[in-house]
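User: Can you write out an input/output pair for a complex, sequences first and structure second?

Assistant: Here is one pair. Inputs:
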Amino acid sequence: MPKKRPPHLSAGDKGQIFAISEFWQVKDKKSNTRAWVDLQNDVTVKDIEQAQAEGFESVEHLKRYTTLGMATDQGKTANVLGLAVLAQATGRAISEVGTTVFRPPYSPVSLGAFGARSTGQDYMAKRLTPSHGWAVEKNAVFVEVGQWLRAQWYPKKGEATWRESVDREVIATRKSVGICDVSTLGKIDIQGRDAARFLNFVYANGFAKLAVGRVRYGLMLREDGICYDDGTTARLGENHFVMTTTTVNAGLVYRQLEFARQCLCPDFDVHLISITDAWAQFAIAGPHSRDLVGELVADLDLSNAAFPFMACANVQVGGVEARLFRISFSGELAYELAVPAQFGGAFIRDIMKRGKKYKITPYGVEALNVMRIEKGHFTGAELTGQTTALNLNLARMVSVKKDSVGAVLSRREAMMAEGSMRLCGVRPVDPEHQLRAGAHFIETGSVPSLDGDLGWVTSVCWSPSFGRYIALGFIKDGDKRGGDILHAWDGLHGSSCDVEIVSPHFYDPEGTIQNG
Amino acid sequence: MVKAVKKTVKKVVKKTVKKSVAKAVKKSVVKSEPLQAVAILAGEDLVLDSCSVRVLSMNIMSFAMPRGQKTAVAKGLKTLGLSLPTAPKIFIKDGVYIVQTQPDQWFFISDVPPKKQTLKQISALGYCTDQSHGWVGVELSGVDVLSVLERLCPLNLSRQAFAINASARTSLDHLGVLMIRLGDNRFYLFSAASSAESFLHGIKTAILAVSD
């Protein structure tokens, strides 16, 4: 074989001569099969020749016209071949064709480097509540809620199943008093001369006239009018509010508020800072919660007249600046008490000691969930990203007297239409029957099909307060169908049953316990 | 709501209330003792010749500037001997570090809690929020500091890019961090209190990997 100038050298170059010649393409004369150059971006020899024929002779043009070398390998597997084909087609050397700009990761990067140390638990940071150490001592079973570890229930000796623990926690709370670490809920400190105006804009319901020392429940809409979060906001001072969000949406709500502050209300004097980690917050719920909290804040009159449902105050607890809110997620007479986070561990030990005479019972998120279903409060299972205020029976909360984020689009015709899904309570006609979330409602006696779909079960629990399974769900026209019997079809688990439509507020629908 | 359902609900509610009321509990108030704070990561220092991480105990207060009050705030803080720096510069005086955290917000970080009177004066100028319990602070120092940080943090920490007495909000081992450089090989790092264990674990892992 004659010695030949290698193709990477141009005519004038004095380089080493090898007895090899270039061989860039296996040509198959019999069939017109395509010869691939860039396997990632599907570029063939024909594509490159076509580009050249159309005048895209510059290597930068070739790249943009054919996407040669633009995949994640940045040409590592294809560019030399592609440039050689172009060189051949244009009668040039590869060095004359030149190369394009390539970007990382061009040099070899191992997949391990992308993972870095993010293996095992390091993959995600753990967030611990202020009472975590105490909960570990108390044998709590934990559940991951985003990055948080929350106590799910606290098994006692002799309890064989989670249900035994959860049922006990619910009953104990409803009968006397229970305590739950709710520090994971997002907390946002909102201050400024326009703070009230700002809240009035980001919440669908009115906040402008919330009195100092009072808390209000608020519903938050996305720009498109769909509900995405709810929570309570307390007015601690004329220009000072503390907002709570759901645990999972804490970051999202903060981001939306920051967007509203910077872009939608740039002329407002309003300032935000997260205080989620700064405060330990505990729900203290049950008929004896007033007695117990009264011991802690002896100088505050907790009578209904002085400190009614939805009141709040700055208080002193154990020599520490604390915040007391009379709010309730369980439906009980209840308070939430916040102390600076590093006092959280000491606080729960102290209140457990004080509460002994009331048989105070710590409860986890599972019991919390049972009690909120009994009370008919919705959570993430109901806020699906498609849920309107009307679906939640809260259409009247979206104020028409003011502008707020999402208010206009929430009034679109289809979102206000008759025949919408409505949040309802349901209970199996056979009280022992276990209903499951995800079951779809159809008319009794009808064949399960999408055409006859009337909604679905969102949340289910065994209710120790009622001694039966109860559930929440969305039902088409559900507000007009109280008392009707539907079939909850659960083909997945094969556990379908007839259910009765009832109010979502199973427990204390008039609120006499909560407000008592 | 259907009447039948209403009835059962009422029954259960009544039962529950009656029981709890009937079970009259004797009131015996447990004597009030002051609550003791448990500092996060206390005693978790790692001290090596080449690099050490020490857990700090600092007071942190955020300060937000009221709209249109720039001059008044500057004037007010001047009487206290303080001023608000523009990031990445920081203000340091007598154990007080002032760091800008966003366009209209600063952190006042100090070794000791501010005096009540000082706090009152600062609060009168802008919006203050105590952040002491929301963050955990560590001091990272030693000749290997940059090797440790380059494993954890995407920031260019060369002296030209990140000077002594400069601050940055960045990420460290996937967690948000407020970083202050106090010397060639000395940094203060602040991150969220709830994930403090993961934060310190990441730093210690990097220190041990580098010191091998």
